[in-house]
């Protein structure tokens, strides 16, 4: 988190005062640190040492083209889940040969485009999808590289909405059936089996579930090899958690890899990893202005100009993110507030019961907002989505303009 810190009594993003950005461009605005994004990417990449590997940044965490471009320049791969995300990667200068395509509902048109540009691998999530990819590749006279996303039935010990590796979750092919499906895939004329993929959930703060899943994947790879299906890579997914609270402990990418590589069998494969949150979350903040303070008998509310349409994690997962003043006051009184937005929903809050010394017009920063912040934003209540800024040393760049009212109604038509 170190590129967002207090200096001379106010919050800085690298060498730029956050208040200066807010005053220049308005609020709500997302601010990202280039140095932090790159440092986090390198932490994953370096954790592999000399092991053949590919860091496939999970585009869904933060898909701004400027951010994807930074990773593309570093030689990153990308994990995508839609044709739209593929388009972003290509526009950002990403190498299609380093793209893996996950997701349970790939449409034929998306598969076709991915085959046209030549992605590295489809992470196939069902037998029906396998048939569809085989058919589309056949029509195009191509051979599609595939891995099966297996569901290892491991409890990721995270929020139920972001757990993906249990048999009741919609993701992947149950590991008990995987062998049969692999044999079927290997016999299909327009497919080439290249790997095994597994992603068990997001915001994992302990390493045991990753290791449990890996053991099952390695055993599957061995059983497949015995039957003549040799995979080249293992994709271990994303999911490494981050620190949202000061007292939270999150394993580093180096700890994570060191733990996995205690199993030497891993070394014979190229290893893909798909981190999103661990790279982007703590590289961004959401800055908002206090509009009104509403002091009531039962509760105090700080009504701010960012809302659940800008950052939905608190409403959706009861997620806790730190909220801090951009320019802390030296005088005045600290009160306990629910920090709420202007959207007409009771669930529209950014934080509950926060002790803050604030006045209307003050700026607040919601930390750890670089991942699943802007990408999950909506136009609910016909609110424009926030502006995005990238700080790079002492420079700031607007990397996405705030939406205008014109943007908000684009494409709509009234009856003749
Ligand atoms: C298939 C897949 N890969 C990677 C990710 C990225 O996860 P995270 O942001 O937790 O690293 C996700 C999201 O959970 C995912 O569904
Ligand atoms: N969007 C979630 C994570 C889901 C990861 C995508 N599979 C979050 O904000 O925590």
From TrEMBL:
Lineage: Bacteria, Pseudomonadati, Pseudomonadota, Gammaproteobacteria, Thiotrichales
InterPro entries linked to this entry: Ala_racemase/Decarboxylase_C (IPR009006), DAP_deCOOHase_LysA (IPR002986), De-COase2_C (IPR022643), De-COase2_CS (IPR022657), De-COase2_N (IPR022644), Orn/DAP/Arg_de-COase (IPR000183), PLP-binding_barrel (IPR029066)
UniProt pathway: Amino-acid biosynthesis; L-lysine biosynthesis via DAP pathway; L-lysine from DL-2,6-diaminopimelate: step 1/1
Catalytic activity entry: meso-2,6-diaminopimelate + H(+) = L-lysine + CO2
Keyword set includes Acetylation: no
Coiled-coil region(s): none
Keyword vocabulary terms for this entry: Amino-acid biosynthesis, Decarboxylase, Lyase, Lysine biosynthesis, Pyridoxal phosphate
Residue numbers of N6-(pyridoxal phosphate)lysine PTMs: 60
Active site residues per record: 344 (proton donor)
Residues where substrate binds: 277, 313, 317, 345, 372
Domain Orn/DAP/Arg decarboxylase 2 N-terminal: 35-281
HAMAP family named among the record's database cross-references: LysA
Top-level taxon: Bacteria
Family: Belongs to the Orn/Lys/Arg decarboxylase class-II family. LysA subfamily.
SUPFAM superfamilies linked: Alanine racemase C-terminal domain-like (SSF50621), PLP-binding barrel (SSF51419)
Annotated Orn/DAP/Arg decarboxylase 2 C-terminal domain residues: 30-370
Name listed for the protein in its UniProt record: Diaminopimelate decarboxylase
Source species of the chain: Thiothrix nivea (strain ATCC 35100 / DSM 5205 / JP2)
């Amino acid at each position: 988190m170190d590129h967002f810190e207090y200096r001379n009594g106010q919050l800085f993003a690298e060498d730029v005062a956050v208040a200066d950005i807010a005053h220049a461009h308005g609020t709500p605005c997302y601010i990202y640190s280039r140095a932090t994004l790159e440092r986090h990417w390198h932490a994953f990449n370096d954790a592999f040492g000399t092991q053949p590997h590919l860091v496939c940044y999970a585009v869904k965490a933060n898909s701004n083209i400027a951010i994807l471009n930074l990773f593309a320049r570093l030689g990153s791969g990308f994990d995508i889940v839609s044709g739209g995300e593929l388009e972003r990667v290509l526009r950002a200068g990403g190498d299609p040969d380093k793209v893996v395509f996950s997701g349970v509902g790939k449409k034929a048109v998306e598969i076709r485009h991915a085959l046209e540009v030549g992605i590295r691998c489809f992470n196939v999530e069902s037998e029906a999808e396998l048939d569809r990819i085989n058919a589309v590749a056949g029509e195009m006279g191509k051979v599609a590289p595939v891995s099966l996303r297996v569901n290892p039935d491991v409890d990721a010990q995270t929020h139920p909405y972001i757990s993906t590796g249990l048999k009741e979750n919609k993701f992947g092919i149950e590991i008990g059936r995987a062998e049969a499906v692999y044999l079927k895939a290997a016999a299909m004329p327009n497919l080439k089996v290249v790997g095994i993929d597994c992603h068990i959930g997001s915001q994992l703060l302990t390493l045991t579930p990753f290791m449990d899943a890996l053991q099952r994947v390695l055993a599957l790879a061995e059983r497949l090899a015995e039957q003549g299906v040799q995979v080249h890579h293992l994709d271990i997914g994303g999911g490494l958690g981050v620190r949202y609270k000061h007292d939270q402990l999150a394993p580093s990418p180096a700890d994570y890899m060191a733990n996995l590589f205690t199993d030497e069998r891993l070394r014979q494969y190229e290893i893909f990893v798909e981190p999103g949150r661990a790279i982007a979350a703590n590289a961004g903040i959401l800055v908002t202005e206090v509009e009104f303070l509403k002091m009531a008998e039962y509760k105090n509310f700080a009504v701010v100009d960012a809302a659940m349409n800008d950052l939905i994690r608190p409403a959706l997962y009861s997620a806790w993110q730190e909220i801090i003043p951009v320019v802390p006051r030296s005088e005045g009184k600290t009160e306990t507030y629910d920090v709420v937005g202007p959207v007409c929903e009771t669930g529209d809050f950014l934080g509950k019961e926060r002790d803050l010394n604030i006045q209307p017009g003050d700026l607040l920063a919601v930390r750890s907002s670089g991942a699943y912040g802007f990408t999950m934003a909506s136009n609910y209540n016909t609110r424009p989505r926030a502006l995005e800024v990238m700080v790079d040393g002492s420079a700031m760049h607007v990397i996405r303009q705030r939406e205008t009212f014109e943007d908000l109604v684009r494409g709509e038509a009234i009856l003749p």
